[in-house]
Amino acid sequence: MVLDLKIDVREEKNIPIVSINGEIDIYTYPKLTETLNSIIEKGSTEIVINLENVRYIDSTGLGALADGANRVFDQGGHVSIICNKPQVKKIFDVSGLAKRNLSLFPSEREAVDNARKHLKP
Amino acid sequence: MVLDLKIDVREEKNIPIVSINGEIDIYTYPKLTETLNSIIEKGSTEIVINLENVRYIDSTGLGALADGANRVFDQGGHVSIICNKPQVKKIFDVSGLAKRNLSLFPSEREAVDNARKHLKP
Amino acid sequence: MTSKNKCIEISIPSSSEYVGVVRLAISGVASRCNFTVDEIEDLKIAVNEACTNAVVHAYNGKTGTVTVRCYPKHNELAVEVADQGAGFNVKEVLARAGKSTPSGKRPSLGLGLTFIQNLMDSTKIQSAPRKGTTIRFTKKHR
Amino acid sequence: MTSKNKCIEISIPSSSEYVGVVRLAISGVASRCNFTVDEIEDLKIAVNEACTNAVVHAYNGKTGTVTVRCYPKHNELAVEVADQGAGFNVKEVLARAGKSTPSGKRPSLGLGLTFIQNLMDSTKIQSAPRKGTTIRFTKKHR
Ligand SMILES: Nc1ncnc2c1ncn2[C@@H]1O[C@H](COP(=O)(O)OP(=O)(O)O)[C@@H](O)[C@H]1O
Ligand SMILES: Nc1ncnc2c1ncn2[C@@H]1O[C@H](COP(=O)(O)OP(=O)(O)O)[C@@H](O)[C@H]1O
């Protein structure tokens, strides 16, 4: 529906890809946190998160992403974010979040390639 | 924008085709009335109105359509409406409006063909 | 109606440009109540028609306020649309509702109340001269 | 602030599920004020963050009301988000705003107020202990 959040997880070349559809806010972010936690608990440290179909993300959504990124970073991993919507990018810019352990990519191709480079053999 | 109304008029085989995009309500319907009036004043009596991209129409929007249909009917003409959205169709159904001088069609092809049949040579 | 805590309230100037704002808000409320897409559309129409009536008929060209209150309940959404305008004779109007005036110049079909009654599960109208009108309706979850 | 006539008001229970309803309403108001798509997004974010703060911080788990008032003006939109909750020490908080606590467990970055200040043209916060918080901001048309 208009305010819903849908999350899909699949794997490509051993990299979990989280595709998010909808709006991430104070109401929906727990679903994202849950998803990331279960992926991390399974041992993945390189995670790709596709935000191409995210129409809206707020500070709590960024917080959930940053939390996940911190957790995998502690284990030597990274979170790669796919994001091409100017409005969503702007949020990352204003937050100053797109640094060390969380990188933005314009397409899934590039994000997965980058993640695979970091993947321990 | 989210609540806007855009109206485009073109002609195909002497039939004016009015394409409407957006929401028709108490705020936007005057634009529709204006458009229909100017077409009718130019002498057209068979008018095709495409509502495929209308996300929302209310009783004032229906009123504007019915008014236009009444005016061309007085001159022996018809209004053919293209409408495939169930929600919009429902509005026509509940209103009991889709009768004599105002007919619904599932595609522009069929609406134009029907209008041409009625067109005086 | 119920405790203030479970009420979402929107009030707008009785001006045609803001009726669409109420539609957006109600679609949000209805979607949070897990109504289906079709039910959400029905609610948008009912609320829209009630607000449009208040904008058109309540204040005789002056600007007043139209207030929409939504009460999400276990198995339904209750909505109340209120103005403090002219009021009208409900019995008289309902008797002729749906019957279009064939030669009326204004693009009005007398359809507003018919839509509300057809699309909602229950409707109640209270109106008093110069005190205003409150229309209450409910939509049940299927 | 200005006459009631030019105010669009939305009030919701201080519950996370209704913040999205306010975003929808504000996007309608902003679109009626002829803001650009980008400006509408900025306004959605600012209003969202102010409401989220009221939902998270104002009522200590109890339910209160969050009220959003929009005042469309000639060259700007003024917005006011108010709660009657716990209040906070504005000076102290603004001094540390934007500085993230590196090991905080909760997914909060202290970004809400930073977003509002960055995206709006002016921001004013009033807060008093146990009386509540009102944050006012304006967005100008470009
Ligand atoms: N809020 C209101 N204030 C005053 N009169 C109203 C109000 N709502 C409805 N009415 C009266 O009821 C009549 C029927 O309303 P409705 O079925 O919506 O049709 P319409 O608005 O197209 O006339 C209106 O013409 C008006 O006289
Ligand atoms: N409406 C409010 N009621 C009470 N405290 C508030 C309110 N808004 C903001 N605060 C205080 O200001 C702090 C900073 O808010 P903010 O920048 O939005 O970051 P965050 O909410 O992520 O902590 C909050 O942690 C809270 O202590």
Short description:
The complex is a heterotetramer, with two copies of chain A (121 residues) and two copies of chain C (142 residues). With 121 residues, chain A is an alpha/beta fold.
Structure description:
The complex is a heterotetramer, with two copies of chain A (121 residues) and two copies of chain C (142 residues). In chain A, 41% of the residues lie in helices and 32% in strands. Chain A is an alpha/beta fold and 121 residues long. Chain A has one domain (5-118): STAS domain (Transcription Regulator spoIIAA, 2-Layer Sandwich), CATH 3.30.750. In chain A, strands 1-2-3-4-5 form a five-stranded mixed β-sheet, with helices on both faces. The radius of gyration of chain A is 13 Å and the shape is globular. The mean pLDDT of chain A is 92. Chain C contains four helices and five strands. Chain C has helices at 19-32, 37-58, 90-96, 112-119, and strands at residues 8-13, 65-72, 76-83, 122-128, 132-140. In chain C, strand 4 (122-128) and strand 5 form a beta hairpin. The longest helix of chain C has 22 residues, at 37-58. The model of chain C is unreliable at 102-108 (pLDDT under 50). At the A-D interface, helix 2 and helix 3 of A face helix 1, helix 2 and helix 4 of D. One adenosine-5'-diphosphate (ADP) binds at residues 49, 53-54, 56-58, 83, 85-88, 93, 97, 108-114, 133 of chain D.
Which keywords apply here?
heterotetramer; A: 121 residues; alpha/beta; Transcription Regulator spoIIAA; 5-stranded mixed β-sheet; 5 strands; C: 142 residues; alpha+beta; 5-stranded antiparallel β-sheet; 4 helices; binds adenosine-5'-diphosphate
